[in-house]
Specification:
The chain is an alpha+beta fold. About 20% of the residues lie in helices and about 40% in strands. The chain has a 6-stranded antiparallel sheet, with helices on one face.
Length: about 140
């Protein structure tokens, strides 16, 4: 298990844009499972449909991207990269995410090198898939 402090040591994002609360499982080079607790106290809900707060799809994609970056950093031990650039995103969204949901994130490696990686990405709430697709990254 990887807690928030270790996540912060691996990727540059910080509050309010750190989108991972915990990594629950990780197999180096293969996959990662993580989650984000979606709380009504988060700042963006003031402007993202205040009468019916909805967790932005871009933030779901960001949470998946951050999990993929943690997987890269934990899999390639001496990876000096501190910047990760998403070069391709193909995600379909199936359901909205609201405050009180726990966003479960699953990332599976398709290909991984020191220059980046290709990943299958999936996010779910209560075992119902809310977003799914693939992402490609470059590292610097």
């Amino acid at each position: 298990m990887i807690d928030t402090e270790e996540i912060k040591s691996l990727i540059p994002q910080r509050f309010p844009f750190l989108m991972l609360d915990r990594v629950t499982e990780l197999k180096e080079g293969e996959y990662i499972k993580a989650y984000k607790n979606v709380s009504i106290n988060e700042e963006y809900f003031k402007g993202h449909f205040p009468e019916a707060p909805t967790f932005p799809g871009a933030f779901i994609a960001e949470a998946m991207a951050q999990a993929a970056c943690v997987l890269l950093k934990k899999s390639i031990k001496d990876l000096a990269a501190t910047k990760f650039y998403v070069t391709s995103v193909k995600i379909r969204f199936f359901r909205i995410v609201v405050p009180g949901d726990q966003l479960q994130i699953f990332i599976k490696t398709v290909k991984m090198t020191r220059l980046g990686g290709v990943f299958e990405v999936e996010a779910s709430v209560d075992k119902t898939v809310v977003a799914k697709g693939d992402m490609t990254f470059a590292c610097k």
